[in-house]
Design a protein that fits this description.
With about 170 residues, the protein is of the alpha+beta class. It folds into 2 domains: about 15-65, no CATH class; about 85-165, GMP Synthetase, Chain A, domain 3 (2-Layer Sandwich), CATH 3.30.300.180. Helices cover about 45% and strands about 15% of the residues. The chain has 8 helices and 5 strands. The chain has helices spanning about 40-50, 55-65, 70-80, 85-95, 95-100, 100-105, 125-135, 135-145; strands spanning about 110-115, 115-120, 155-160, 160-165, 165-170. Strand 4 (about 160-165) and strand 5 (about 165-170) form a beta hairpin. Helix 1 (about 40-50) crosses helix 2.
């Protein structure tokens, strides 16, 4: 039997019925400080008395809701930080030879992604010309497929033009 859900708008009112027993009072603390607060402890003791000592643990597990995968938590943190484009470029760099071909991968590599545009550094002018004029549409299609539509355009730039402060040199 589940206690009735309180629909008032107080700050202590649960926002989601599946997570109403979540321990959030000390969530910003680390190590031993993550123990339940006094309010949470009293709530759990009352529910333990309600369900009985035998069933309390399994009922608490059911009331807290489903566990989340670590990968879901990491993705959520990276979304908050705004690091997803960098991770996509890193994943793309790991399989770059499969995306553009072995010869091209020896002469260029993905550098950064901004606003859906992937910037690729190319080692030499002949390769820059060939990639820009002859292979751009094919590379764009493969990169777009790999990124599931996140990358809208590919720009090939001469090696050394990208500076590590986050921009391109105009010279």
């Amino acid at each position: 039997m589940v206690p009735a859900h309180n629909n008032d708008s107080s700050p202590d009112a649960p926002s989601d019925e599946a997570e109403w027993l979540a321990r959030r009072d000390n969530c910003e603390r680390r190590h031993r400080g993550r123990r339940p607060s006094g309010r949470e402890r009293r709530r759990e003791e009352a529910l333990g008395d309600w369900y009985g000592k035998e069933r309390a643990t399994e009922e608490f597990a059911l009331l807290r809701g489903p566990l989340k995968q670590v990968s879901e938590l990491v993705d959520a943190v990276l979304d908050d930080v705004g690091a997803q484009p960098n991770i996509l470029v890193e994943k793309l760099g790991n399989c770059w030879a499969d995306v553009v071909g072995r010869d091209a991968s020896r002469n260029c590599h993905p550098t950064v992604m901004r606003d859906g545009v992937l910037f690729v550094e190319v080692k030499s002018a002949p390769w820059l010309y060939m990639l820009e004029r002859q292979q751009k549409t094919a590379v764009l299609e493969r990169v777009n497929t790999f990124s599931r539509g996140e990358i809208k355009d590919v720009r090939f730039v001469a090696a050394g033009r990208y500076n590590r402060n986050g921009g391109f040199d105009d010279g």
